[in-house]
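Shipment paperwork, digital attachment
Item: protein structure file
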Amino acid sequence: MEKKLVFNINDENILYKFSNYLTSELKPVSSYRDIIFLCIGTDRSTGDSLGPIIGYKLKKLHIDNLIVFGTLKEPVHAKNLSSTLDFINSNYTNPFIVAIDACLGNVRNIGNISIQSTPISPGAAMNKVLPSVGDLSIVGIVNISGPFDFMVLQSTRLYTVMNLADKISNGIAISMMNISQKYNTM
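Attachment content:
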């Protein structure tokens, strides 16, 4: 995998490109590892709610091979990230973790989704020291980074977050259904 691949939310082919790319990355590991989608964030901040909204949307789909942690009902955030990782590692053998989180960035990158084959460091915008997580990471840039990141996260447009959440959750769902179909037809 390339170090970082970026998708723009306004690309009319984003679902096709995103889901195909994700399928190509997850299919090789899906035959021997559980794929865990770890959706990080809190429902108490609009800008930081991207992960829990994606988790909520994915859980509602009831796809057999889709394992999700972090929803609006049970968010994974700074206070429980370590214990959630401990639970995952003690209940799944060698899980492949796809970490999903919101991110602040440059104004021209708002609405971009990036996938990297590296872990992410959640809480960086709030200067929190949390464990890096993910064999693969998906981040959505929800707003601009600046000297008052906490205030920026609080005042992020819900439309931006929901638009990113729709694209990411739909892309993941398509990818996981593609993986299931490919293994069921063998």
